[in-house]
Design brief:
This protein is about 75% helix and about 0% strand. It is found in: Membrane.
Length: about 290
Amino acid sequence: MMWGKIALAMSAFAANSIFCRLALADRMIDPYSFSMIRIVSGVLALAVLLRSVEKLKPQRENWKGGLCLTGYILAFSVAYMQLDAGLGALLLFGTVQISMALYAVYNGEKVTWFRGMGLSVAFLGILLLFLPATHAPSLFYAFMMILAGLSWAGYSLIGMSTAQPMIMTYNNFIWAVPICLLLSLVSMPNLYIHWNGLALAIISGAFTSSLAYVLWYDLLKHLDRMTASTLQLSVPCLALLAGVIFLNETLSLRMLFATIMVLSGIGLLIFAGRKIAVVQHIAKND
């Protein structure tokens, strides 16, 4: 059951990359409008699910989650105006993995040989998948994707302590509305929306963002920081495979081998996490 939820959440994250790339690459919508519509759609979808006025009151302490969510969604959209999908995914999820793994080590999580091997194999798979086919990006857009990765890492770390994933996700989205609106005001003259872009932003916000983030927060209660960071390295692989299916991109042997490496690294990390849990359980009973 848990593996099914993980697969669903990662698939939704990959879908967000596809929706955003489609909308921005074909200039169906500007990144600020896409981000704002995505956030508002998420708020409305969660409000319908919660159906309680009492539960819909935003909590003051959730402003950090709202700030991280806005930073991720807005920087992600701006970066994909120029970055190719491969390099963008590498920067985003490479940043997420490295920052969450370092935070985990800082907080005392053990890095066993198997864990170190899993992290290395998964990250090398990402490098193999994307680096040879990319060109040097604009520093500004590269920085924006790294900012998106740091924001998503922060958003994930905040969610690891929540007992009510849906309510906390709703509050994060509520806080993200005014923050995103303020950051978007500087680009008011450059806003444009076409119907296809509007539809992609609504689908991204109402389904593959808000609902997927609730699922992700629920999963985070059962994952340690290192496992959570490495699981997300599967998203660039899924996005690339989705590009082959839906965007007629080519599936190469290098792509297939790199995907196997990433999934093998994730498998090693999960195995190491279970081994540590068993050892801790035995020690506790002794």
